[in-house]
Every structure is written in structure tokens, then in C-alpha cells.
């Protein structure tokens, strides 16, 4: 029964339906919340947490919180899907991918229940929401990086093609490179302000400087990453659960005939 359940859960049709639910629950609810935001919400400059904040969005903060919570639940099966599909490249890396992705999804779910920009310590942490959000992004990024490494190892095989590797690499490395550059430049302005300040002044009004732009870019990159995991794999990537389920059914029929 368990094998049959997993075989049905990891079918492409089921995963495609989960992707549709993820898109609607995340981008749909955030889009509606941004449209009804009390002030002008510009996704290029404002972080997603502004939509979840009762202080900034007092009337509709619950909507994106519920949407992100459902998104986390819909994303959780992909942790096992990635782990099982990447075992052919490296079992250890596959477990890291699945574990990191699951940890990131759980941290994302926890962000929905902690008020952003909290003024008091929660569990000994001053900005628990921001900590959970960064943890979710970090864990998911680790899972995506290890998945890229696995795809690189087997990029020449029929199981995963070169298109999967390049798609995963682009949607993973581009947001990470942008965040790394902006954070490094921010650190350099504090250490070497004499020569870093002109660069900061030049980029300060650019969208590439603001965290909000990279948050939305990263969210879209994760969605594209999951889409590639489902649609850029061949039918041979049906998980071992499918073969196990068929073996169980065959054994059950044989036992029935024997009896």
C-alpha cells in the first residue's frame, strides 16, 4: 500500500498538479495582497515579508501567510522526489538534496506563524521571522546546488539531459550570484568605504541593489527549478517505488493463484 501511494504521488500528472497549486497559492495570493497593499507595493524594492507584516499590511497580511503555508505543504513531496531521482548520481548527495530541501520547506512554513519585524525577542531571537526566512532560503539553495552537481554528473545519460543541468544551473546560480554580489558590496562599504562608496552610490537606485528584487527572483527560480525537475526528465525517471509497486502486485497475484 505504501509503495503504491508513493508511486501515485510521484507521477508526473500529480506533480504537475502540485506545481499548479504552488503557483496559485504563492504567486496568486502574494499578487492579490500586493494589489490591495495600503501603500504602493513595488516588488523590485519591497521584500515579501512586508506583505506578511500586520504593521505594513494590517488588513490582508493573513492572505499571503496562508498562501505561503499551503505552498510549503505542496512543495514537501518534491524533497522525496528529488532524493529518489538523484540517487543514480550519488546517494549521499541525493540525501543532502532531499534533506536540505525538506528543511527549507519546513522553515518556510514556520515563517508564516511568526510576525515579521517583531520588536521583542522570540525564543531568544530578536528577528525570528527574518532568521527563519533566511534559513529557508539557505537550505533550499543548498538543495538546489547539490541537485545541480548530481545533474552534472549524469548530464550525458538518458535519465537526465543536458537541458536539465543547464536549466537548474542558471536558475540556481543567477539569484545566488546577485545576492552574493550585493551582500559583498554592502560589507565592503563598511570595511573600505573610501573606494566602495562610489560604487554603492551608483547602484543604490538600481533594482539589483535591493533585497526585494532578489527575493522575488529567487522565488521564481525555485518554481522554475521544480518545473524542470518534473518536465525535463524522461519517463524512465519514474521512481523505484513504481517498480516496487508492480512487483508487489505481481507477487500478490502469484500468491493468489498458488492458494
> Shape from CA axes?
globular
Summarize the biggest pleated sheet: none
In total, the number of domains comes to 1
Number of helical regions? 10
* Uncertain runs: 235-259
Helix residue percentage? over 70%
Average pLDDT number: 81
Radius of gyration: 21 Å
How much strand?
under 5%
Computed structural class: mainly alpha
For the secondary structure, the number of strands is 0
State the end-to-end CA separation. Answer: 21 Å
Report the order of strands and helices: HHHHHHHHHH
Short description:
By secondary structure, the chain is mostly helical. The chain has helices at 2-9, 12-35, 49-52, 62-86, 91-111, 128-153, 162-191, 193-203, 211-231, 240-258. The protein has one domain (2-244).
Amino acid at each position: 500500500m505504501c509503495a503504491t501511494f508513493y508511486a501515485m504521488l510521484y507521477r508526473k500528472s500529480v506533480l504537475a498538479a502540485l506545481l499548479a497549486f504552488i503557483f496559485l497559492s504563492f504567486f496568486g495570493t502574494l499578487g492579490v495582497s500586493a494589489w490591495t497593499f495600503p501603500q504602493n507595493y513595488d516588488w523590485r524594492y519591497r521584500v515579501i515579508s512586508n506583505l506578511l507584516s500586520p504593521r505594513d499590511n494590517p488588513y490582508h497580511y493573513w492572505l499571503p501567510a496562508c498562501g505561503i503555508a499551503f505552498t510549503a505543504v505542496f512543495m514537501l513531496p518534491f524533497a522525496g522526489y528529488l532524493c529518489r531521482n538523484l540517487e543514480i548520481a550519488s546517494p549521499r548527495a541525493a540525501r543532502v538534496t532531499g534533506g536540505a530541501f525538506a528543511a527549507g520547506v519546513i522553515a518556510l512554513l514556520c515563517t508564516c506563524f511568526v510576525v515579521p519585524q517583531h520588536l521583542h525577542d522570540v525564543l531568544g531571537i530578536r528577528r525570528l521571522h527574518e532568521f527563519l526566512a533566511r534559513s529557508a532560503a539557505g537550505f533550499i539553495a543548498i538543495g538546489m546546488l547539490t541537485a545541480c552537481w548530481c545533474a552534472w554528473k549524469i548530464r550525458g545519460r538518458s535519465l537526465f539531459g543536458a537541458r536539465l543541468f543547464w536549466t537548474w544551473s542558471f536558475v540556481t546560480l543567477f539569484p545566488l550570484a546577485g545576492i552574493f554580489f550585493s551582500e559583498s558590496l554592502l560589507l565592503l562599504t563598511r570595511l573600505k568605504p573610501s573606494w566602495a562608496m562610489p560604487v554603492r552610490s551608483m547602484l543604490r537606485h538600481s533594482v539589483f541593489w535591493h533585497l526585494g528584487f532578489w527575493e522575488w527572483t529567487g522565488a521564481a527560480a525555485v518554481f522554475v527549478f521544480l518545473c524542470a525537475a518534473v518536465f525535463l526528465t524522461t519517463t524512465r525517471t519514474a521512481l523505484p517505488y513504481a517498480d516496487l509497486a508492480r512487483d508487489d502486485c505481481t507477487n500478490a497475484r502469484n500468491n493468489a493463484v498458488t492458494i
